[in-house]
Every structure is written in C-alpha cells, then in structure tokens.
Give the backbone structure.
Amino acid sequence: MSFKDLQLNKPLLRAIAESGYEEPTLVQENTIPFVLDKKDVITSAQTGTGKTAAFALPILQMLFDYQDAPKKGKKIKALVVSPTRELAVQIAANFKTYGKYTNLKSAVVFGGTSIEPQKDILKKGVDILIATPGRLLDLHKQDLIHLDFIDIFVLDEADLMLDMGFIDDVKKIERLCPETKQTLLFSATIPYKVEQLANTILNDPERIEVAPNASTSKNVNQALYYVPKKNKIELCLHLLRNTIKGSIIIFRRTKFGVDKLEKTLLNNGYLVDSIHGDKTQSERQKALVDFKRKKVNILVATDVAARGIDIDNLDAVINFDMPNVPETFVHRIGRTARAGNKGAAYSFCSADEKRYVKSIQQLINLQLDVIDDHPYPLDPKAKAIVHKSKTPKSKHKKGRKSEASKKKKKRWY
Ligand code: AMP
C-alpha cells in the first residue's frame, strides 16, 4: 500500500516524500482510514512503529480540508495530550514536519518552563495543540485555552499517562472538550486500567492492534548477563570497551542510580549525559539534542524520562537494572531497532532480580540468550538478599502519621 492509497492530499504527500517515507507502516495503514472516517480509535502499538504519523497525518488532512469553516477561525481544533514533555515536543516536531505545506498552525505547551512565551503563542491562535496535562489545565484555568471547538482529541501513551497518575487530569480535559469530538487513544500496551478508561471516553471505537501486546522487536538481539550487583559497573565498562559501540541508552530504575552511573562513566572518559525527573526541562532537552546529534554517545536514563523518545539509529539498550514491571522491558527494548533497523539489548541481572526475568520472558514469549562467557559471572547458587524493614513498630501507631509520610510522596524516577 502507498500513502496515495490512503487518500492523503498533496501537501501531506509532499512532506511525507521529503521525510523519506516510502510506504505507510502497519499502524499507519490500519489506523489512518478509520481516523479519516471520523471513527473513535484505540490503537495498541509499540513505540517506533510510526504511530505519531498514524494520528498526525489524518488530523492534518481533516483540518486542512475543513479549515474554511468560518466560526472556527482561530480556535484549537485538535488536541493531543502527552504524558511527558519530551514526547510532547517530539509530537509537535512531527506535526510541523508533516504539516509543512499546509497553513495549519501547531504549538506545544508543557510544564517546567516559563508559561509566558506559551501564552503569547496561544494568543496568536493555533489549530493543533500538543500539551502535557498539568500545563494544559493551568492555561485553561487562566482562560488562555478554550477547548469548546475541539474536533479531535488524542490521548497518546495512555498507559504511561495512567502510570504517572494523570487519570483525573485526563478525565477533566476530556470533559472540557465537546461531547461530539472524535477521540483517538494510543497506548503501547492495553492493560485493564487503559481498557476501563477507553470504555468511559471512547464511543464505539475501532480497535487496532498492530503488534501483540507484549512483543519486543524481532530485529533486536537480546543478551542476558547474570552478574553480581557489585560487578555491574565493571561488566558495563568491559562491554563498552569490547562489545557495545555507537549510540547507547542505559536504563536504571532510580534517579540516584542514573547520577551514580553517569559519574562513573564520565570518570572513565566516556561522552555521557543523563535524563531523569529531577533534571530541569532545559537540561533534559539539551541532553536529548546532544545525544541525537551524537555529541554524546551514551545516555543514562530512568524509564519515565526516556519513554516514547524517538532516536534514530540507536545501536543498543543496556538494562543496567532489570525492570520490576515486565511491560517496562518492552518499552525499553522499543528504543532500539526502530523503523526496521537492527539493534541490540543487554540486560544485567543480579541475584535479587532473577525473579523478574521469568515474568519478562513469559510476557514477551521469548527466552533471552544467556551469555555465560564474561569476566563477572554470578554464582548460580547466589540467593537474593531480602532487606527486612528495621522501622520500629512504635513509629507506625495507628492514627499517628509521621511528618515524612504526610509529605507528598516524592517520585524516585
Ligand atoms: P514513532 O513510532 O511515531 O515514534 O515513529 C518512529 C520513527 O519512524 C520516527 O523516526 C518516524 O520518523 C519514522 N516513521 C514514521 N512513519 C514512517 C514511514 N512510513 N516510513 C519510514 N519511517 C517512518
């Protein structure tokens, strides 16, 4: 199938050709006709499958075709809500690329940066708005965003959105849009809570499942290293010296872990940057740009900070810590071998992480290749160390919450 077969108009076909896309990806082929047909859609697709264009192209087409509707002149007509700032910026960049030869205006708003420039852009009027939930509601409260004329509402990375605790915000935003709108929901996986949300906000949706819920790309070579926790850094340095080359993302579970590993790699002469939830927006943006431009070749990241980010030609992913949620493994591996390229994934598993391997393998329905031939093997008899809580019972008396527990729980990612 070609993009022409999808009935896309000339300005879009021209931009698509300039992007070097020869044919639609599976998710595009399956989603675009339904969106153009004004159907609600729930699409489950891995990152890297081209899902952004699967909603951006038909949205641009529909708005382009109807842009003369006079009453909607400067109103926002399409709203895309994204859980992270990086993803929002990336989606906005895609809208700009694909909409290059239309006169439609798109803009992005997200938290963590000054609100003033965003206000100025909104005042000039935009057709398509891409936003993170908090900043969107903030601007709405200040009467700077009106959602009364939204024709199309897109919820991207819905599973992450819910994992990040945005469920109430999402419902609030959805209710601010007209009931008649068309809603498109995209999610890497469709766990029960996403299904529940879909049932409340979608109207008789078309279901599109491009890859099985838990598949990892076939183009990724998967290697599993059993290694004592204390030797993970040495193993990482050993592999970076001898085996793993090119652009690499290393995942750690915590911000502390990310900072620690970044420092060690810098001390060993590697060009490294990092992203996690404690970094400012401009630091995160700079790290990504430097990584994409290959000024640094290693990016150390927590899962949430890295989710959905599109990086061309990523050569390898290292799971320095095994993810304790199996779906996270799928998302991490989705960073490499995007858009048909080859990639590799290296997972480091210590004794106390062995229990995660089983559920990951079950989920992806694949045995990871165990690499025994390395200098820091884990004693197969090594047992997980269970840390027992040392908190004295008296501190947990019923009805008496400590000051620390009263404080809002701080995110560790
Ligand atoms: P996404 O899943 O939207 O993050 O897209 C992943 C990557 O695939 C991005 O770099 C897109 O530019 C690229 N892409 C999207 N659609 C196509 C296509 N039809 N042909 C080739 N590459 C594409």
